[in-house]
Amino acid sequence: MKRKLIGLIACGCIIAGTVYAASGSAKDEKFPKKMDNAISKYLVQKFRNSNDSSEKGFEVHHVYGTETKDNFTTAYIKSEYGEFQKSNDDMLSGHVVPAVIKMKQTGSTYEVIDYEEAKDGEMYVDSIKAMFPKQYAKQILKNNSNSFDLNAQLMKKVHEWNNSN
C-alpha cells in the first residue's frame, strides 16, 4: 500500500513538474505591447511599396519566443504583411515569412536594429535551421501553414480600417 501511494505521489510530482515547465516557456510569456507595436511599425515601414496602387499596409505576427541579453531582445516570429485599397478586402501584395528581429530597449521604448527573414526555395529549410533555435525551427518546419490564423488577424485590421471614416 505504501509503495502504491509513494508511486502515485511520484507520478503526480513528475506530471505537475512537466506542466509547470511547459507553461513557463518563452512562447507563453506575455509579449510586451510596446515591443509588439515596434515590430509591426518597423515591418509596415520596411515593406510599404509607395509605387503601387495600394493605400495602406498592415502587418500581424506570431511570436514563437524571445531571448533577452542586456538591453537587446531577439524575437523569433512568423509575420504576415499585406497592402490594401480602402473598401476592398483583396490583398494587392503581401507575404507570410518566418523572421528574426533584434531590438534594442531604451527605457520603455524598443527600436528594431536588425531584421532577417527566411530564404525561399531550396534554401528555406537550411535558413530556418540556421536562424532559429532548434525548438522554434522544429515548430516552423513541422507546421509551415498559417496555423496561427495570421490572415484572420490581418483581415480584422483591414475590416476595421475599411469601416472607419
How are the SSEs ordered, and which strands pair?
Elements: H1 2-23, H2 33-47, E1 56-69, E2 72-84, E3 93-106, E4 109-117, H3 124-131, H4 134-142, H5 150-163
Antiparallel strand pairs: 1-2, 2-3, 3-4
Helix pairs in contact: 3-4
**Computed Rg:** 20 Å
Q: Give the helix level as a range of percent.
A: 40-55%
What's the CATH topology label of the largest domain?
Nuclear Transport Factor 2, Chain: A
Report the β-strand fraction as a percent range.
25-35%
Strands in their spatial order, largest beta sheet: 1-2-3-4
Task: Give the H and E element order.
Answer: HHEEEEHHH
Shape: globular
Look at the helices and sheets and give the structural class. Answer: alpha+beta
Biggest pleated-sheet summary: 4 strands, antiparallel
**What is the CATH class of the largest domain?**
Alpha Beta
The termini sit apart by 72 Å
How many strand segments?
A: 4
Described by its quaternary structure, the protein is: single chain
Domain tally? 2
What would the average pLDDT be, to the nearest integer?
A: 80
Please tell me the CATH architecture of the largest domain by its name: Roll
Number of helices: 5
**Which residues form runs of ≥5 with pLDDT under 50?**
2-28
